[in-house]
Fold this protein.
Amino acid sequence: MEDKQESRLLRELIQREAWEELAEQQEIMHVQDVAAALEELEPTVVLQAMNQFPRERWPAIFAYLNRAEQYSLLQQMDPDDGRFVLAGLLPDDRTALLESVEQEDMEQLMQLLPPADVKQALKQLGYPEESVGRLMNTRFVTIRPDWTVGKAMEHVRTRGESEDTINTLYVTDPTGRLLGTVGLKRLVLSAPTASVEEFISGQLVTVSAAEDREEAVRLIQHYDITALPVTDKTGVLLGVVTVDDVMDVAEQENTEDFHKIGGMGAMGLSLREARPSLLYRKRVGWLVLLVFMNIFGGAGIAYFEATIEAAIALVFFLPLIVDSGGNAGSQSATLMVRALATGDVQMRHWLKLWGKELGVATALGVTMGIAVWGLGLWRGGVEIAMVVSTAMVAVVIVGSMIGMLLPFLLTRMNLDPATASAPLITSIADICGILIYFTIATMVLTLPAV
Amino acid sequence: MEDKQESRLLRELIQREAWEELAEQQEIMHVQDVAAALEELEPTVVLQAMNQFPRERWPAIFAYLNRAEQYSLLQQMDPDDGRFVLAGLLPDDRTALLESVEQEDMEQLMQLLPPADVKQALKQLGYPEESVGRLMNTRFVTIRPDWTVGKAMEHVRTRGESEDTINTLYVTDPTGRLLGTVGLKRLVLSAPTASVEEFISGQLVTVSAAEDREEAVRLIQHYDITALPVTDKTGVLLGVVTVDDVMDVAEQENTEDFHKIGGMGAMGLSLREARPSLLYRKRVGWLVLLVFMNIFGGAGIAYFEATIEAAIALVFFLPLIVDSGGNAGSQSATLMVRALATGDVQMRHWLKLWGKELGVATALGVTMGIAVWGLGLWRGGVEIAMVVSTAMVAVVIVGSMIGMLLPFLLTRMNLDPATASAPLITSIADICGILIYFTIATMVLTLPAV
């Protein structure tokens, strides 16, 4: 847990304004921990703390601050320092900062960049949001297939110093088309006179810059690689997506799935930073929709008004019956949505899984029916017990089936399966539960329906 | 999407039993795609397909099959081939296979291993389940601080061929204590006469072998590193956890969180492979517990029997009221559980977030109250409308507060916050919803409670 300790130590030094002590300790501190400690502090204090670190570490620390903090810090900084920090960022981090601010602030930041970097940033911002093009790092080392290993190593030595990703080298033809990759490791292990060509792997994995960034996550996970080359339509190498970027994206995408299945709009932002108005907007949709779906549920109950009046004890079990369907349905929806997201389950598996789910749901329903039998007997007598437990079996099975099939149906319609959220399934299960429960009650108790 | 195409092509070749064609194409196929294509096939067919690939690729293909398939394939294989495949696996993959099978099968597999590998496997299996020790790779290249860069590179050349992870080299003293790490890149970029010592980073991140593997995930994500050294209590280097292992673990842990919040026991297994009896056991717990929690909800309704008899229209809105509390609660619980899991939110933030949640929940409650007002007016008149909308505001606020605070409370009690599942919150919200709704109804309609 060293990072938490380090952040706490640093935060304490800052609070005590022990600047000298901080300057002494700075060498052993990781930039990630420094950035974590600077979170939630005023930009002026952040600036004062940054001043205790040698200037060449600023870009690295800056890169780990969150976007909003980066922007407000740049505004506090001397323009020269700002230029220095921005120039020291990796292109992908710079692009991420630029895309996070408003249009006019972006133009202001662009003025701190040299023309070449502006051009690169504009090009990267030209790719769609959440695309691979926005995520990729545009600095990489290329070598030619006809070079010797010795020449390639020499090239790496002269070009590699400033580059982040030289564990993999990219072999291109003179027009920039990617021919293959060679691991630095492979070159190190080879004779200097050997030709680069010999080591090019025929199994090249690439991704297009216009592709959704989730595809980059999938490819890197599937192929267990640490860097994924990005190409244009003609195969020209444009950049590289690295595994650390992909881990961040995977975490964000997982968070979005959590939010969706919890019945909210997906929210990329930090919960701590999200404004209440945003949270309201992300949550209100499903909630209000469910009110309107209740028009049907309420109508169902109204239809069975006579049944209810004749046996008011039925109402005791109404919340339990409708909730059990919703709960069983949420369980199976969660299982399916997650299995579809990880690729464990694909469309073609649906029938086999449906059979399995039917078996499991029946077993669950019967268990629940038995559990609720006692409750029914105690509160309403034998007939009520029969109604409640039969309804329970049916409701759990129906709820599970809905929860299982809805994610497949959504996938089939090219919608996100995670839309099959707990609240949506709760509402559908409600309507089904009400109808099943009171229909069985009307039949068993031989009461008038209307 | 090249991988899916490749898998499909391969599967088609296998179905047609076009072995020659397969042997011709094998060179351009990735082992990951081959393994994916071999999924769900009979072991004898898998074996036949494997035979089309050169023997030296077998261990790599084998490593990407799932554990159950690995085991049944080994049983079909010639013992010599089995020995060859097992010897070619990375130690961590071998340990993962051994820990996935029954005790007696494990002993049988061990007989295929040379004594050194058995010793290593037993040592790794001695670490607790889900610990870093089980996850780590025990092959790595160490160098000494007093060596020159030239000597270190020479050592890498002789030792590196068989090792997976030489992008980072580990500097140890003669007793094996880890002094620091040096990137292969750094050595390549340096003069051969320089001393290794100069390049050791003072900012060493390590993890203990006994630590939970989630800690390894967190450290690798936090520090943006691709390999994390694992040490014992005295600082001796035991192994290395690599980023690809960590991505798999992160995915599993996320899946477990999904399952927990969906109201199930966490399940590491693939949904496709999970047996119905396991699914039943993982799901039945929460469902039945909720039946017993309904004893309180049912008692609440029974207490207000007279109110219900006097105004049966109240029943129309009962499912809506209790569900809305549950839905709003699930939303805030999902937000909190996820934010706590990613580290976005920590315990110390609870009060600030509570204030924000109260604001958002009030706004949501009022919106819902207005939405339901119309429904109430239509189905029950002015008084019912008033009861329903007031109860709605209260229920949404109470549900949200429970959903928000429960994960913090569970964290405080050192329990997993993801236990605050949708079904649990639904049940608690039920009881609160029933009491709030009928209490308000009894007051507004001035009806007798008992």
About this structure: Chain A has a mean pLDDT of 87. Chain A has three domains: 2-126, 142-243, 276-444. Chain A touches chain B through 116 residues (CB under 8 Å). Residues 350-380 of chain A form the longest helix (31 residues).
